[in-house]
Structures are given as structure tokens and as C-alpha cells.
Write a structure and sequence with these properties.
- With 410 residues, the protein is mostly beta strands.
- The chain has one domain (40-403): Beta Barrel (Porin), CATH 2.40.160.
- It contains four helices and 19 strands.
- It has helices spanning 2-28, 153-156, 289-294, 363-366, and strands spanning 44-58, 61-62, 65-66, 71-73, 78-86, 92-100, 114-123, 127-135, 173-183, 187-196, 211-219, 230-244, 247-262, 267-281, 297-308, 316-327, 335-347, 350-361, 374-390.
- The strands form two sheets. A 16-stranded antiparallel beta barrel has the order 1-5-6-7-8-9-10-11-12-13-14-15-16-17-18-19.
């Protein structure tokens, strides 16, 4: 019995080696590494666009000349692309690049495109750092519901004292380095240095920093805009290092906000107001259009908008925007403007739009606008906004979509 047990153990050991050797060999062979299923290794990519095309009739100034005939206008049409990636410290790195068609490009004989976004951005939970070409940090304190960004721009936007006035987008975009802190994504403090575009050629170099400022802003919780009484408000200060015989540095102070007069998801009525004060210049008269941007002035703008956005049905909005601008120490230089704007949603991101805008200028100011004291323009057209996100896995606060001029919210 003992001999049998010993022989059986030997036989079992041999059989075990025979059958396990192939298994061990198989286990030792190199196996293909599976492709990671996590899409977080690939950047998130976003492509956004806005097409604005209208038929205009009136007497606007285009390329320094007054036009009294109907025309086709596709200015402010834009295409933007952005990328974002989660970083090792849980921050978000992103970039944005975009071009738009400026107003003077309608004729097809001058600059057809204007680079308005070309930035790299770092975002953490409570801080953000941006560098590159982007919005002038003072230009979005309050966004008014006009058809295009440059409509009534001398009332609604801080003006670039280095611009010659040929490209209105120079008032809204700049080369920027900014650092922003936030508390619970509700209160924001922005500190920045900028190069305001110097088409007049009065700066020391073509790209030197010439504007420094800080802004404080409050924003209600995202998605709660229709139901909040106070949607946003803010205040800002800019110092511009311009050196001219009559101007040794300019100061700009701005304040404004947006409140809901009727809080509703369906029938919303909101009111926007902004006050801009530019001081530090001793100009007493205008020699060119650039002087109207440098001179000390006060510009006030406001708007009332009604937005009807029924559940499951196309919406529409109607708005009235107005502004008044006066100069300190310069007689016969005041101006005012009004714009009535309507938009009707025809489909996802597709709107039928119409606007009538009028401006009046006193004699000394009108002399810098080809002597034109009044300007009246009617527009009717179509607008299409689209946005596409590929490999979505993060939500950066700064995206190509939120740099665009929006109409009826989706």
C-alpha cells in the first residue's frame, strides 16, 4: 500500500507538470494592453459659430462715407474653436481662437476678418488666469440686447482712446493678461493689464501695455437668471497711459447692473443700466474722431427687454435700448441714440431679427462724422447660432460659446 501511494504521487506530479506547463507558458506570454476607455485623456473640443446677415436701409456711415441706399450687412458673423483639458492638479487648461467679420469688411475691399479671440486660460476652483486676445475687460459689465455688438457702441461701451475709429471692434477687444478671483462663483474680482489696439499710432510701441484696471462683479447662480431679482451688477476702474499734449493719462469708471422687473421662466422683463465716466483730458475741441474717444465724457445707457419663452414653443423678444453722451468742457458735442430690436425664434438657434436704430449728434461732434447730425438705420435679417462639443467631460467656465453675442436663450 505504501509502495502504491508513492508511485501514485509520482504519477500525479508528472501529470500535473504536463498539464500545468502549457498554462504557465500561456500566462508568461505578453498580452496586448487594452486601449483605455477613459475619454479624459483626449481634450474637449468645442466649435461655435454665429451668422448674422441683414438687409439694411438708411444713412449709416460706412468706411468714412454716408450711404443712402440699401445694403447687405454680414458684420459680427463669427467662428470660434476652443479646447479644454483637465490638469494634474484638477484645474482646467483651455484655449480659444476666433475670427469675426468687422463692419468695414462688408464691401469686400478692406480687412475681411478680425481676430477677436486668441487666448490661453487656466482655471482653478477659485481663481483664473488668462493671457492673449479676448474681450476688453471693461466691455462686458453690461451687455445690451441690440442686434450687433457695435450698435450704439459710443453709449454702451468704454471707448479705446488709441483707436482711429475705422474698426469699431477695437473698442471691444484687446490683448489681455488678467487674474480673477471668485467666491462660490458668485463674487468676482478681476485685476488686469491690457494693450488697447493702437490704430491711431500714438503709443510708444505697437504692443506695449497701455491700460491697467480692476473690476468687481456679482453674478447670480447659473440657470437662475429668470427667477432672480438681481441678476448681476458690477463696478470697474481703468487707467490708460496715454501721453498727449492735452491728455496725460485717462481714467475710466464704470458701474452697471441687470435686474428682473418680472421674474418668470415664460414672460420675463428685465432692465439694464450702465454709467461710464471718462476723465483726465483737457481737450476743449475736436480735431479728429480719435479726440472724441480721448475727451472727458459721461455716457449713460439703459434698456428694457421683454422675453416670451413658452415651454416647448418658439420664443420671441422685444427690447428698447437708449443712451446719452455728453462731454465735459466742450459745447455742442452731446449725442443720444435709440434702438428697437425684435427677435423671433424659428428653430433651434435660428432667429428672424429686425431693428430700427437712430442717433443724433450736436454740431461739433457731427463734424467728425462727415457732418451727419442724424443717423437712421432699419435692418431685417436672419441669425444662426450653433455650438458643438466633442469628447465632453469637463465644464470650463470660459468657453467659445459665452464669448458670443446672444439673442433668445436656448
Amino acid at each position: 500500500m505504501k509502495h502504491f501511494t508513492k508511485n501514485f504521487a509520482k504519477t500525479l506530479l508528472v501529470l500535473t507538470g504536463v498539464f500545468t506547463r502549457p498554462l504557465v507558458a500561456f500566462a508568461m506570454q505578453a498580452q496586448p494592453v487594452p486601449i483605455p476607455e477613459s475619454m479624459g485623456t483626449m481634450p474637449q473640443v468645442e466649435i461655435d459659430g454665429t451668422g448674422i446677415a441683414s438687409v439694411n436701409y438708411g444713412n449709416p456711415i460706412e468706411n468714412g462715407k454716408v450711404r443712402y441706399a440699401p445694403g447687405i450687412d454680414f458684420s459680427d458673423s463669427s467662428l470660434l474653436i476652443g479646447g479644454a483639458q483637465r490638469l494634474y492638479n484638477n484645474g482646467i487648461g483651455s484655449l480659444g481662437f476666433g475670427v469675426l467679420s468687422p463692419d468695414e469688411g462688408n464691401a469686400g475691399t478692406t480687412n475681411p476678418l478680425f481676430v477677436h479671440q486668441a487666448f490661453v486660460d487656466y482655471q482653478a476652483e477659485s481663481a483664473e488666469f488668462l493671457i492673449g486676445r479676448s474681450d476688453n475687460r471693461a466691455s462686458h459689465l453690461v451687455d445690451f440686447p441690440t442686434l450687433r455688438e457695435e450698435d450704439l457702441i459710443t453709449f454702451t461701451n468704454p471707448l479705446d482712446p488709441f483707436s482711429n475709429g475705422s474698426v469699431l471692434e477695437e473698442h471691444r477687444y484687446a490683448n489681455v493678461a488678467s487674474f480673477t478671483l471668485n467666491q462660490d462663483l458668485t463674487y468676482f474680482e478681476d485685476f488686469h493689464a491690457q494693450h488697447l489696439i493702437d490704430s491711431q499710432g500714438i503709443g510708444s510701441t505697437s504692443t506695449s501695455l497701455n491700460s491697467f484696471g480692476a473690476h468687481f462683479e456679482y453674478l447670480c447662480a447659473p440657470g437662475m437668471e429668470p427667477l432672480s431679482r438681481v441678476v448681476s451688477y458690477g463696478i470697474g476702474y481703468e487707467y490708460e497711459t496715454i501721453s498727449q499734449p492735452s491728455t496725460r493719462g485717462l481714467n475710466q469708471v464704470s458701474a452697471g447692473g441687470l435686474i428682473n422687473l418680472n421674474q418668470s421662466l415664460v414672460d420675463r422683463v428685465d432692465f439694464r443700466a450702465q454709467d461710464l465716466v471718462n476723465f483726465g483730458s483737457s481737450l476743449k475741441s475736436f480735431q479728429n474722431l480719435n479726440d472724441t474717444y480721448q475727451a472727458s465724457y459721461n455716457a449713460i445707457a439703459g434698456s428694457v427687454r421683454y422675453l416670451h419663452n413658452p415651454f416647448g414653443q418658439p420664443g420671441y423678444q422685444i427690447s428698447l435700448t437708449g443712451g446719452y453722451r455728453s462731454f465735459f468742457g466742450i459745447d455742442q458735442a452731446g449725442s443720444w441714440g435709440l434702438a428697437v430690436t425684435a427677435a423671433k425664434r424659428l428653430g433651434e438657434g435660428f432667429d428672424l431679427v429686425a431693428q430700427y436704430a437712430t442717433q443724433w449728434r450736436a454740431a461739433n461732434l457731427a463734424a467728425q462724422y462727415q457732418g451727419q447730425t442724424s443717423e437712421n438705420v432699419g435692418q431685417i435679417g436672419l441669425v444662426f447660432n450653433f455650438s458643438g462639443t466633442f469628447n465632453p467631460h469637463i465644464s470650463p467656465r470660459r468657453t467659445p460659446l459665452n464669448t458670443q453675442h446672444q439673442y433668445i436663450p436656448d
